[in-house]
Amino acid sequence: MANNIPFQEMGKTVRILSSSTANTVAVTADSPCNQVRIHNGTATEVFVRLSTTSTANAAIPTANTAAYGMALHNNATQVFTAPRVTDVEGGYTFYVSVISTANANVFVTPGEGF
Known about the structure:
Helix content: under 10%
Order of helices and strands: EEEEEEEEEE
Structural class: mainly beta
Low-confidence stretches: none
Radius of gyration: 13 Å
Number of helices: 0
C-alpha cells in the first residue's frame, strides 16, 4: 500500500534501454510493494507499461488510436503505482516495458511513497 512518505526504495534499481522496439524487463523488489520510481534522464520521451506478465509490451500511441503506454517526458522522474506483486521464488517481481522513438536509458526502482 502506498504511504504518505517520501519515496523509499525497496529493491535494486534496473537500467532499461529504450528504443523503437519495446523492451520488457523484470523488476524484483525486496519486499511487497506496489509503487515504482521511473527516471528518464534523456532528451527523448518514453512510453511505459507496468504489468505482472513478461509479454505486456508498451506501445506508442498514434493519432486517434489508443495504446498501452504512459508517457514519461524527457528529463523527468515519476512515481507510478504498479500491479501488486506476490512472492515468486523468493522475490516480488513485476515487469516494466519501455519504448521510444530514439534510444533512452530509463532507470526503475521499486518501493513505496511519493
